[in-house]
Amino acid sequence: MTDHEAAPTHPDRRLSTKEAAELLGVKPETVYAYVSRGQLSSRREPGGRGSTFDAKEVAALARRNRREPSGSSAIGGELSVRTRITLIDKDRYFFRGVDATELAARHSYEEIAEWLWTGRLRPGATFAAPDASVAVARRAVDALPEHSGPTDRLRVATIAAATADPLRFDLSQDAVLGTARTLIPTLVAALPPLRRDHRDEGPLARRLWGRLTGRAPDAASVRVLDTALGLLIDHDLAASTLAVRVAASARAHPYAAVSAGLGVLEGPLHGAASGLAHRLLLDVLDQGSAAPVVADELRAGRRIPGLGHRLYPGEDPRARALFALLEEVPDAAPALAAAHDVVATTARHAPLHANVDLALAVLTVSSGMPASAGETVFAVARTAGWIAHALEEYEERPLRMRPSGRYVGARPPQPLPR
Asked: What pLDDT score was predicted for residue 366?
């Protein structure tokens, strides 16, 4: 038995922060995080320099953490990880217990990000990128081949920004929050602007607009973009988010964790899905009807992009929220009608509802954006969610995201190969 395991044998003893951290196998900062979440109580002794903790209470929390590693349990054969960030329940989803669609309707992307990171709202929150970080990220992005995709640019910009931050290995909460508030605007600023008169000022959505389309921004369209960013900020343990948590579990710094998420995001079944829906809508607008386009997709054995979601039996709540806002954008009417035509045509043989990729495609098509724009929106939005999950993972036991392999190969010993 180690020394820190022996401490709880003295039930009346008060533990220092260092002793409590050693017993729990966490950093001292995490001990205070347990206090803020109500999982531990602390007391400051008269004349003492720091807080003390009840030995029995700390030991009980340590036992619970050992019983619930939260990175190895399985439900229905799938990995299950404890989280306080996002809950998906039937046809609704919640950020820290608050309806996500209502948050996105009333607050900016930056304010929702702060809520996700800290559990506190910062009205009027804005993010600013350091000049040095932007300069190195822009140089790296500008050096890429012209055909590079949006995720390529964002991944390179992330790593470049990391090299400009000598404090990136500081994983304390304040340091990670500082990184988050500068990395996201750096990623936006690293993308090439599509308007000569574009200026990097105002809310993040407005800054991003000028990097997605050459059209002048209007209030209604920018509001849809800002709402899309807020709605897409997190969605529980999507594949990219799991990759971020694995990296954070190994104590990778936030830039590296975000880079891991971007690597997974690029798949056609994840962040790139809206591009497929974008091209579908263009085909429908060109043909004048969804029927021949849907028929061609089905004949080729392809699923109809922008329809259905494994977590929502009904309509994706993110799509519902965006469609309602797009009704207020006059230029969106043709693409919106095409999207409804796709849903109605497909409903004749499959009860599939619109998902957020289809709604995002209406925005990108109607705003003169390229097919890859939805991927950019998705990646920028989700970066804040990845940081929230990294923050949560940094408070957990290191390397807990290490599943055991179930070997099904030839039984050893086998002869040496010839």
From this structure: 97
Neighbouring residues of 115: CB distance < 8 A, sequence distance ≥ 6:
95, 96, 98, 103, 107, 121
- The three-class DSSP label of residue 15 is strand
pLDDT in tens, 187-237: 999 999 998 887 888 999 999 999 999 999 999 999 999 999 999 999 999
Enumerate long-range contacts of 40-47, CB under 8 Å, 24 or more apart: 43/14, 45/14
What is the rounded CA–CA span in Å between residue 270 and residue 239? 8
Q: Bridge partners of 16? A: 52
Banded pLDDT at 71 (limits 50, 70, 90): very low
Strand 86-89 relative to strand 78-80, pairing: unpaired
Q: What is the pTM of this model?
A: 0.82
Instruction: For residues 107 and 99, give the distance between their C-alpha atoms in angstroms, rounded to a whole number.
Output: 12
Residue among 107, 133, 183, 219 nearest 379 (CA)? 183
Q: Are 289 and 202 in contact (CB under 8 A)?
A: no
